[in-house]
C-alpha cells in the first residue's frame, strides 16, 4: 500500500491537508487510529461534554502530577476519532490575535506573520454572522469550514456584553475580524445545526475523490532509510506492515502524539532516545519540549431569575432537546451555548489581549456536573500567554504506551498574579448594572475568598486545562537548536518528513486552537505542494492606542 503523501492523523490539520493535496491531484493516504464520528453525541453541538469524557473518542491522556498544583493530574483530552480533537472540542472558533503570528515570524517562523496567515483564514472560511454584525471584508465566504454564531436569545448573553461596556471595555462586532479586543458575540464551527468538524468540512469531501483514502491503523513509527522518510510502520488487525510514501510523510497527530511519534522514529533528544534503546536518526533536543496550554477557571453566579439552562438539566428536557435536534437540527441542541465572549488586557503595558472569556448561561463543569444551587451562570476566564513550559517524553519504546506529559502548570509567580487578576476583573464585570437583575450571589469562589492567599488556594484547587496543548515541536529557523521544523514544516535533519499541527506553534495563540490548527494544515499544504503562497494581506488590525497607559 502506498501513496504520494501519507498523513498520520485525521485531525484538524490532517483533514485540511488531505483535502488540499488531493484537490491538487496528488494521491493521499490518511492513517487514523480512531473510530467513526457518526452519531448524535459528536454531531449535536449541545452534547459537547460527552465525547471528550468518553474513552471511545478520547486517548484518555492525563498530565503527570503537577508539582505546583499539589500533585493534581489534569485531564488532557485528545481526539481518538475521525476529525481528531475537532470532533470532541467545544466548537469555539478563534483565529488568534494578529500579534501572535507576528511574534511567530519574529521568533524564526518566517512567512507566518499575520499578513501571511490571514489569506489562509479567508480561504478556509465560509462565514455567516447570522445577522449579528461582523467584519465581512475580513472574513472568508466560500471555504470548506463553516463558521457561524448562535442565536443569542438568552438575555444573559447580551448582559455579559453590556456589563463589559459598562466596566469601560470596548465592544467588538467581530473578534476574528479587525478588532479582537473587547466584548461581543462568540463564534462556533456549527453548520445547519451540526458540529462542523474538520472531518465534515474537509475529510469527507476529500475521501469522495479517487485519489484519497483512509486506513484505520495505529501508527508505530516513521520508517526512515538513509536519512529520508519513506513510509509509516502501522499495526492493524494484529499485524504490522509498512505503508509507503512516494513523496513525503506528514505527521499530524496532535501536540501529544506528534512528538511521541518522532521520538519513536529516532528523532528527538539523543539522551532521551538512548534511555529507551531507540537508535538516533536526528538529534533534535526540541522534540517534546516547549509544551504550552491554556488554563482556566469558572466564576459562577447564582441567578435571581429562572432563565438559565438549568431548567433543561433533567432527563425529560434533554430528551426533548435531543429529539428536536435529531429531526430538525434546530433548538438548544444546535448550539454549543458559548454565544458571548471577550478578549481583554490584564493591565496597562500589555500590548494586546492576554485574557479570554467564554460566557455560559448555566453553572456547570465540563464533565456535565451542575452547581448544586440550581439556576446560575458562569464566565470561563484564563490568561492567554503563561510563561510556564512543559514537555512530552516517552514512557517506553512501546508505541501503545501513553507518553509522559508534564505541563509544569503555574510554575511562575506571573501565573498566580495573572489568575488573581482574572478573578478580580471578572468580579468587577459581574458587579455592573447589566447584571443587577440577574446576580443573586457568587457561587464560586464565593465572597469569603478575597485575599491573595485565599485566591491562590482556590486557583490551586480549581484551575483546569482549557484543552489547548500545543508548541511541542516548535517551528523556527534551521540554526535554532530547539526548532523541530523549519518554516515550511520540514523536520530539520530528515528528508521527506514534515509535521503540521498545533505542535509546531512557536508560542500558543490567543483563544481556542482549532482554527489556527486548521489554518496550519491549509498553509502547510501549499508548502508541501511547492506552490507559491497566497499573497500577504494588507489589512491593518485594530490595536488599542492607549495600551501603554491604560488597561481598558
Outline of the structure:
The protein has 552 residues and is of the alpha/beta class.
What can you tell me about this protein's structure?
By secondary structure, this protein is α/β, with parallel strands linked by helices. The protein has a domain at 1-63 and 78-124 and 194-286 and 473-547: FAD/NAD(P)-binding domain (3-Layer(bba) Sandwich), CATH 3.50.50.60. Helix content is 24%, strand content 21%. The protein has twelve helices and 25 strands. It has helices at 12-23, 40-43, 98-106, 114-124, 155-166, 198-207, 254-264, 270-275, 315-328, 413-430, 452-462, 514-529; strands at residues 2-8, 28-32, 61-62, 75-76, 125-127, 145-149, 182-185, 187-188, 190-191, 194-195, 212-216, 218-225, 228-236, 239-251, 267-268, 282-283, 295-303, 340-344, 355-360, 376-383, 391-393, 404-406, 439-444, 464-465, 497-499. The strands form seven sheets. Strands 1, 2, 11, 12, 13, 14 and 25 form a seven-stranded mixed beta sheet that branches. Helix 1 runs parallel beside helix 12 (514-529) and helix 4 packs across helix 12 (514-529). The longest helix has 18 residues, at 413-430. The chain is globular and about 70 Å long. The mean pLDDT is 96.
Amino acid at each position: 500500500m502506498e501513496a504520494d503523501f501519507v498523513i498520520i492523523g485525521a485531525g484538524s490539520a490532517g483533514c485540511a491537508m488531505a483535502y488540499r493535496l488531493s484537490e491538487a491531484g496528488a494521491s493521499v493516504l490518511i492513517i487514523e487510529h480512531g473510530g467513526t464520528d457518526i452519531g448524535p453525541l459528536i454531531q449535536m453541538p449541545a452534547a459537547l461534554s460527552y465525547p471528550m469524557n468518553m474513552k471511545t473518542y478520547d486517548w484518555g491522556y492525563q498530565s503527570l502530577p503537577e508539582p505546583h498544583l499539589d500533585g493534581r493530574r489534569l485531564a488532557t483530552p485528545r481526539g481518538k476519532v475521525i476529525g481528531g480533537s475537532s470532533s470532541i472540542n467545544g466548537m469555539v472558533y478563534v483565529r488568534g490575535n494578529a500579534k501572535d503570528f507576528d511574534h511567530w515570524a519574529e521568533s524564526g517562523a518566517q512567512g507566518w506573520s499575520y499578513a501571511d496567515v490571514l489569506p489562509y483564514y479567508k480561504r478556509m472560511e465560509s462565514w455567516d454572522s447570522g445577522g449579528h454584525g461582523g467584519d465581512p471584508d475580513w472574513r472568508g465566504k466560500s471555504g470548506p469550514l463553516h463558521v457561524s454564531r448562535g442565536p443569542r436569545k438568552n438575555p444573559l448573553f447580551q448582559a455579559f456584553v453590556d456589563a463589559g461596556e459598562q466596566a469601560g471595555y470596548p465592544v467588538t462586532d467581530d473578534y476574528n475580524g479587525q478588532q479582537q479586543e473587547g466584548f461581543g458575540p462568540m463564534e462556533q464551527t456549527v453548520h445547519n445545526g451540526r458540529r462542523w468538524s474538520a472531518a465534515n468540512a474537509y475529510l469527507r469531501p476529500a475521501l469522495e475523490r479517487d485519489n484519497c483514502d483512509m486506513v484505520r491503523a495505529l501508527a508505530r513509527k516513521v520508517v526512515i532509510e538513509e536519512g529520508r522518510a519513506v513510509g509509516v510502520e502501522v499495526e492493524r488487525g494484529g499485524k504490522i506492515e509498512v505503508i509507503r510514501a512516494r513523496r513525503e510523510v506528514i505527521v499530524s497527530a496532535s501536540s501529544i502524539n506528534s512528538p511521541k511519534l518522532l521520538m519513536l522514529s529516532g528523532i528527538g533528544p539523543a539522551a532521551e532516545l538512548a534511555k529507551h534503546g531507540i537508535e538516533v536518526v536526528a538529534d533534535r533536543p526540541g522534540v517534546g519540549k516547549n509544551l504550552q496550554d491554556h488554563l482556566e477557571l469558572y466564576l459562577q453566579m447564582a441567578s435571581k431569575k429562572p432563565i438559565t439552562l438549568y431548567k433543561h438539566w433533567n432527563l425529560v428536557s434533554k430528551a426533548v432537546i435531543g429529539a428536536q435536534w435529531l429531526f430538525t437540527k434546530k433548538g438548544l441542541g444546535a448550539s454549543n451555548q458559548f454565544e458571548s465572549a471577550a478578549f481583554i488586557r490584564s493591565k496597562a503595558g500589555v500590548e494586546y489581549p492576554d485574557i479570554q472569556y467564554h460566557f455560559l448561561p448555566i453553572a456547570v463543569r465540563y464533565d456535565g456536573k451542575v452547581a448544586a444551587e440550581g439556576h446560575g451562570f458562569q464566565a470561563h476566564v484564563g490568561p492567554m500567554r503563561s510563561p510556564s513550559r512543559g514537555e512530552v517524553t516517552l514512557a517506553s519504546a512501546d508505541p501503545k504506551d501513553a507518553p509522559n506529559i508534564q505541563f509544569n502548570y503555574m510554575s511562575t509567580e506571573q501565573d498566580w498574579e495573572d489568575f488573581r487578576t482574572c478573578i478580580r476583573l471578572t468580579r468587577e464585570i459581574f458587579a455592573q448594572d447589566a447584571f443587577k437583575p440577574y446576580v443573586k450571589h457568587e457561587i464560586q469562589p464565593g465572597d469569603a475568598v478575597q485575599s491573595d492567599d485565599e485566591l491562590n488556594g482556590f486557583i490551586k484547587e480549581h484551575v483546569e486545562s482549557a484543552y489547548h496543548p500545543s508548541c511541542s515541536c516548535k517551528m523556527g529557523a534551521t540554526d535554532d537548536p530547539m526548532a523541530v521544523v523549519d518554516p515550511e514544516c520540514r523536520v530539520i535533519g530528515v528528508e521527506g518528513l514534515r509535521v503540521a499541527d498545533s505542535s509546531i506553534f512557536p508560542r500558543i495563540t490567543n483563544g481556542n486552537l482549532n482554527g489556527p490548527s486548521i489554518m496550519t494544515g491549509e498553509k502547510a499544504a501549499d508548502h508541501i505542494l511547492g506552490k507559491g503562497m497566497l499573497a500577504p494581506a494588507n489589512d491593518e488590525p485594530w490595536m488599542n492606542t492607549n495600551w501603554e497607559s491604560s488597561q481598558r
